[in-house]
Amino acid sequence: MAVTARTDIKAHSSQPTALFTPAFILGWLVNLTQYLGFYFLITVMALYAMESFAVSETAGGFAASAFVIGATVARIFAGWAADRFGKKKILLIFVALGTIASLFYIPAASMPALIAVRLVHGFSYSLASTAVMALVQSVIPAERRAEGTGYFALGSTLATAFGPAIALFVIEDFTYNMLFWITVGTNLVGLVLTLFIRKPEFIKIAEQGRMKATWSIKTVVHPAVALIGLFMLAIGLAYAGVITFLNGFAQENELTAGAGLFFIAYAVAMLVMRFFLGRIQDKHGDNPVIYFGLISFALALVLMSLATEDWHVVVAGALTGLGYGTIMPAAQAIAVSSVPSNQVGSGISTLFLFTDIGVGLGPILLGTLVAATGYSVMFGALAAVIVLASVFYLVVLSRRAQH
After folding, report:
1. H-assigned helices in 54-144
2. pLDDT category, 8, cuts 50, 70, 90?
3. Which residues, in sequence order, are CB contacts of 192 under 8 Å at separation 6+?
């Protein structure tokens, strides 16, 4: 069964062809603030919980993953809410809620309180990130879908590269409370920027004559996006292995210098390729870009499994940027192009739901594998997962109509 292309993709002839509009730029910046808030805390939360409340590594890991649990629960409603009540309204409400939630990290004085804050923060982040993605997708010209999606994804890439580094610097030289205040400030900037986003006239006209969506299982798992979602579940699982166990692997093998540059190499590689890959996908279809990403990601994981020098880890970081950093925005473009224009929120939310499941399951499943076999075997196993995902894409998804 192939994913079918959207037939109404040029339904609004009045849509402009410019890509970097005010709505796109402001949406990009809001998205950056949301991802920074996520990456500031995800890398240090387990350690913070263990140090502050004297809990086990398992409990500390749950404090970190509670955010993902809240985000995953929100995916059940996020796409429908954005389509039903309006992307701008949902974005504003849940950026505000995320800002309020981030304030409560400081007074949270127990593990249950911390986990509650993480759940609410993750819930609000999920709805906000879905809404801003749907909003920006609605202003990207159809003929530049993949290019625009790729540029939009650079915000999350920069957050991936610099968020953890900033967090580690702050807790080493200052305090966790300082990091929490920085997170609050970042969310507050996102809230202010959201207030200035204005929907273009062609979107307002389109929304006036549109029936309001009703919640159903199809708004949670959109049938047109389910297959590319399953593909991204496997990709998310592999990515979770990298971001979760990179530091432990580096410390065990004395490769911390390479690990420190891993996400910088990731961001640089993706930044350079963004000038080419999106245009290639728009012009030649999805397959060349997806295959390029899969090959790069598999090579990154193989190299990690064999790494003995810092430069091995840095090169693996660049390959991961060319791999996961290419596949994710390409899949987002596929998802958006596969659904009607009034169901973009549901399409994006479906893709994120499957990806979140992969990322959420990764630390649990792979932690057991690491304990039994070690890091190198785990990275090798994840390379095999990417090979299986490649076969799935080739057999099931590669016949998708080229656009």
Report:
1. 57-85, 87-103, 111-139
2. very low
3. none
Compute, in degrees rounded to 10, the torsion defined by CA atoms 153, 157, 159, 162.
Answer: -160
Query: Are 152 and 29 within 8 A, CB to CB?
Result: no
Distance CA 260, CA 247 (A): 9
**Tokens standing for residue 13:** 């002839």
Residues 44-64: what's their mean pLDDT?
A: 84
Q: What pLDDT digit, counting tens, does each position of 193-217 carry?
A: 999 998 665 555 455 545 566 766 7
Phi, psi of 318, rounded to the nearest 5 degrees? -65, -40
Each residue's pLDDT tens digit, 155-175 = 887 887 788 778 888 988 899
Tell me how far apart the alpha carbons of residues 323 and 383 are, in angstroms, rounded to a whole number. 12
Cα 230-235-237 angle, rounded to 5 deg: 95
Nearby residues of 168 by Cβ (< 8 Å), 6 or more positions away: 43, 44
CA distance 79 to 96: 18
Percentage of the chain surpassing pLDDT 90? Answer: 42
CB 95, CB 194: distance < 8 Å:
yes
The separation between CA 308 and the C-alpha centre of its own chain, rounded to angstroms, equals: 29
In order of their start, the domains of the chain are 20-210 (1.20.1250.20), 216-403 (1.20.1250.20)
Alpha-carbon distance 124 to 344, whole Å? 19
In 10 A of CB 304, how many CB atoms? Answer: 29
List pLDDT tens digits, range 12-42: 445 557 888 999 999 999 999 999 999 899 8
Closest by Cα among 60, 32, 40 to 48: 60
Q: What is the pLDDT of residue 7?
A: 41
Angstrom distance (rounded) from CA 296 to CA 300: 6
CA terminus-to-terminus distance, the chain: 18
pTM value?
A: 0.79
Say how far apart CA 61 and CA 370 lie, in whole Å: 15
| Six token digits for residue 56 | 């086990």
- State the Cα–Cα distance between residues 136 and 114, nearest whole angstrom: 32
Q: Which residue has the tokens 């959109």?
A: 222
Helix (H) or strand (E) holding 375: helix 375-392
